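Long-time lurker, first post. I've been practising inverse folding by hand and with some scripts of my own, and I keep getting stuck on stretches where the structure tokens seem ambiguous. Below is the full token string for one chain I'm working on. Before anyone asks, I'm not after the true native sequence, just a reasonable design that respects the backbone. If someone could post their per-position residues I'd love to compare against what I wrote down in my notebook.
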């Protein structure tokens, strides 16, 4: 096996595949990077058994400047190999397998030799047998992930809540995540209707890594689902993830359909106020801020208190305030995550009582996106 390739283009693809490779694996060969070379292309594969990423570097793509002299395959120690390639002196790098499973890496005046493993011992890729494909613009899918993955649980005691629940039916996609303290729900319309109904739970960790690979491009992401795997096709890169097993809890009944008090305000401006208030709340043991709403006087205040440091109080600019007077306390970190997911848009916050969950929705498309937060009892 021997090929020469543009080093910077190779590193970019290498970084994508490295997202799937963990040093903490019970299968030693999975700490390695699988390289398969054919006369037309080079395929890189990385996996930690939960996530598998495969990308193809084609000789038809001038970006790679790929020249294949001899096909072959090998598994090389991933982290070590990538560090070497990143520090090589020249624009081009040549990788050659000679005696047994030894790889020689040369670039300019530098030459490394490292030990590899037999690629035949590398686990096979998961098989996705379905032909049903869901297409969605990359930037839209990245937005869906960003708006929902913030609410997945980090507690392994309830594994099902560490994923995002996706329901695809007809031309509708519903995604929901909750950690039992907060909830995020997003609905989108698919460009093409699908024949089969899918109800799957994708690990939050997988979606976070996928989001980083999508970038801000509007290029379509293709989604294919099988019994226990999901495949995302990003052009010349395939991203596989296992699915979580079990039934996701019924979440639709958690979202209140009536309210006693509502406030409309700018998400970005409110976020800045919460960030200031949380400077003190983080110093106290309970990490709570309080929101006071008085619709009669059109006054909204945020306050935080730390017995050791001091307190903060700030008036909040609201475009409208309706309903009953209310004082409610909540975790500011949950509120900050929720507000960031709305960007610069105007939002409506609806409250039913001081001890009941409240919801945040965009004022323009109230039905398509909901963030729910459970308040904190302070007495």
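-- Answer (accepted) --
I ran through it position by position. Result:
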């Amino acid at each position: 096996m021997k090929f020469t390739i543009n080093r910077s283009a190779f590193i970019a693809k290498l970084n994508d595949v490295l997202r799937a490779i963990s040093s903490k694996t019970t299968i030693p060969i999975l700490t390695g990077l699988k390289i398969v070379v054919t006369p037309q292309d080079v395929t890189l594969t990385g996996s930690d058994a939960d996530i598998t990423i495969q990308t193809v570097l084609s000789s038809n793509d001038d970006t790679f400047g790929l020249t294949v002299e001899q096909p072959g395959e090998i598994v090389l120690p991933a982290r070590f190999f990538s560090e070497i390639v990143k520090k090589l002196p020249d624009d081009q790098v040549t990788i050659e397998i000679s005696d047994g499973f030894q790889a020689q890496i040369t670039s300019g005046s530098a030459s490394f030799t490292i030990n590899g493993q037999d690629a035949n011992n590398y686990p096979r890729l998961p098989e996705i047998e379905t032909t049903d494909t869901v297409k969605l613009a990359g930037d839209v899918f990245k937005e869906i992930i960003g708006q929902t993955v913030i609410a997945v649980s980090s507690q392994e005691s309830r594994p099902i809540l560490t994923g995002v629940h996706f329901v695809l039916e007809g031309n509708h996609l519903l995604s929901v995540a909750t950690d039992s303290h907060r909830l995020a729900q997003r609905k989108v319309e698919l460009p093409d209707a699908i024949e089969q109904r899918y109800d799957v739970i994708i690990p939050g960790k997988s979606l976070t890594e996928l989001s980083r690979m999508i970038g801000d491009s509007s290029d379509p992401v293709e989604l294919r689902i099988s019994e226990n795997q999901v495949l995302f096709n990003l052009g010349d890169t395939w991203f596989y993830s296992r699915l979580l097993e079990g039934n996701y809890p019924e979440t639709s009944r958690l979202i209140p359909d009536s309210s006693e008090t509502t406030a409309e305000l700018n998400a970005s401006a409110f976020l800045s106020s919460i960030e200031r208030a949380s400077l003190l709340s983080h110093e106290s043991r309970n990490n709570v801020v309080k929101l006071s709403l008085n619709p009669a006087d059109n006054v909204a205040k945020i306050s935080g208190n730390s017995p050791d440091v001091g307190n903060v109080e700030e008036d909040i600019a609201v475009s409208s305030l309706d309903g009953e007077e209310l004082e409610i306390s909540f975790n500011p970190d949950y509120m900050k995550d929720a507000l960031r997911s709305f960007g610069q848009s105007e939002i409506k916050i609806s409250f039913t009582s001081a001890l009941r969950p409240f919801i945040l929705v965009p004022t323009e498309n109230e039905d398509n996106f909901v963030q729910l937060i459970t308040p904190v009892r302070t007495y």
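A couple of notes from the structure itself: The domain at 134-252 is CATH 3.10.150.10 (DNA Polymerase III; Chain A, domain 2). The mean pLDDT is 93. Happy to go over any region you disagree with.
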